[in-house]
UniProtKB/TrEMBL annotation:
Single GO term (MF): hydrolase activity, hydrolyzing O-glycosyl compounds
Designated name of the protein: peptidoglycan lytic exotransglycosylase
Catalytic activity: Exolytic cleavage of the (1->4)-beta-glycosidic linkage between N-acetylmuramic acid (MurNAc) and N-acetylglucosamine (GlcNAc) residues in peptidoglycan, from either the reducing or the non-reducing ends of the peptidoglycan chains, with concomitant formation of a 1,6-anhydrobond in the MurNAc residue
UniProt xrefs under PANTHER family: MEMBRANE-BOUND LYTIC MUREIN TRANSGLYCOSYLASE A
Record-level GO cellular component terms: outer membrane
Signal peptide interval: 1-20
Species this protein is from: Sphingobium cupriresistens
Length: 417
């Protein structure tokens, strides 16, 4: 994934710690998410709206059912969606996003238990040539709605940050952005014990022992210097710190060009949210992103030490094609992609959101995941890059209802009589 958390959920994200014990943070391809708002900028004023009520439901009580997936949690057949899908740009972008998801979607094993790959064949075939001007009609013709669990949605926002950077080291650009080191090794513990299936650690070999990889403080102090791993250089260590937490971003180069970088691994150390550390120590009061960045800059030595208490360090690669790339393996689409928990929402499936904020209302495509995006009806909306994206994502914290759109006919085998 490229990153996930912001706005009203920002402080909570800053206070989260990743999994303990040296396990890789629980994300498809990135660290635990946070959405920084650059200092001096404010979130966009929200546009209020009235969300559509969730559907009444009796959740299954059978203890044999796996409540950790959508199929086990229970689904309720939704209303006819023809009148519920807003027409316009959101639907058009969602159709584009769905179209590029189809090749992977039709081959993917759905962890939610809601669909099979073949369920998507008809919709994907139609999407390939469907006119974007009537995108809302496409969704209403080829999909039916179900509500997963109680349907109560919580939506935050994320964006692609932009910071000042340079491809070469020069005055004003001296913070190294590193490629993934060749001695950073992933170990699948499930190969050694069935009880450890699904768990992975990262580290390096030292003699005959496998040991933890260098932590943030060691890397910032130069332990990787001289190995040819420098991909680029950032101008501001604070901005780069939060771009690392974000997992991808854009470097605005001195010549006016742009270099896009994406997540290419993490050192395997635990993620620590510095917001909680700072608030517990009385260093900040309100705990806003602006407060945190202002303190780090006003106290550079102490700020550097605080950032190093987050031992996690992220490595990058240059992105030269479309992107950023989400967990589905395709480029995410601004104002059409959401991150979701694939145990409850099929990756690639459309989702219809109705919230107490107007900006994210409509159809989105679940193309991404996130370390903090867990559980049914939890979403993180992607808004792209630039000031508008920062402003909306930075203040996004919306609640309402969510319907998952499944290919027509697939809901019949899911809904209990």
């Amino acid at each position: 994934m490229i990153a996930r958390h912001s706005g009203g959920a920002l402080l909570a994200a800053l206070m989260l710690s990743a999994c303990a014990g040296g396990m890789i943070p629980p994300s498809a391809d990135g660290p635990a998410p946070v959405r920084p708002i650059p200092s001096g900028e404010a979130a966009t004023r929200p546009v209020p709206a009235t969300p559509r009520p969730t559907l009444p439901v009796e959740l299954p009580t059978d203890p044999a059912l796996d409540k950790g997936t959508a199929a086990g949690l229970g689904v309720t057949r939704g209303p006819d969606i023809a009148s519920l899908i807003p027409s316009g740009e959101r639907a058009r972008l969602a159709l584009q996003a769905f179209r590029i998801s189809c090749p992977t979607l039709m081959k993917r094993t759905d962890a939610s238990g809601l669909t099979k790959g073949s369920d998507w064949n008809n919709a994907c075939a139609a999407a390939s040539s469907w006119p974007e001007a009537s995108a809302s009609e496409f969704f209403s013709r080829y999909f039916e709605a179900v509500q997963v669990g109680d349907g109560a949605a919580f939506v935050t926002g994320y964006y692609e940050p932009e910071i000042a950077g340079s491809r070469t080291r020069q005055p004003g650009y001296e913070v190294p952005i590193y490629r993934r080191p060749t001695d950073l090794i992933d170990v699948d513990l499930g190969q050694f014990s069935d009880s450890l299936k699904g768990r992975t650690i990262r580290g390096k070999v030292n003699g005959t022992k496998f040991v933890p990889y260098d932590d943030r403080g060691q890397i910032v102090s130069g332990v990787l210097a001289g190995r040819g791993l420098e991909l680029a250089y950032a101008a501001d260590p604070v901005e780069f710190f939060f771009l690392q937490v974000q997992g991808s971003g854009r470097l605005n180069l001195p010549d006016g060009g742009v270099m896009r970088i994406g997540y290419d691994g993490q050192n395997g150390r635990d993620y620590t949210g510095i917001g909680k550390l700072m608030k517990d120590r009385g260093l900040i009061q309100a705990g806003s992103m602006q407060d945190i960045m202002q303190y780090l800059r006003a106290h550079p030595a102490e700020g550097a030490a605080i950032m190093n208490e987050n031992k996690s360090f992220v490595f990058f690669r240059e992105l030269t094609g479309a992107g950023p790339i989400g967990a589905l393996g395709v480029p995410v689409t601004a104002e059409a992609t959401v991150a979701a928990d694939p145990k409850f929402i099929p990756l690639g499936a459309p989702v219809l959101l109705s919230l107490d904020r107007a900006e994210p209302a409509g159809v989105w495509i679940s193309q991404d995941t996130g370390g903090a995006i867990k559980g049914a009806n939890r979403f993180d909306s992607f808004w792209g890059a630039g000031a508008r994206a920062r402003g909306i994502a930075g203040g996004m914290s919306a609640r309402g209802s969510a319907l998952v759109l499944l290919p027509i006919g697939s809901a019949a085998r899911l809904v209990r009589p």
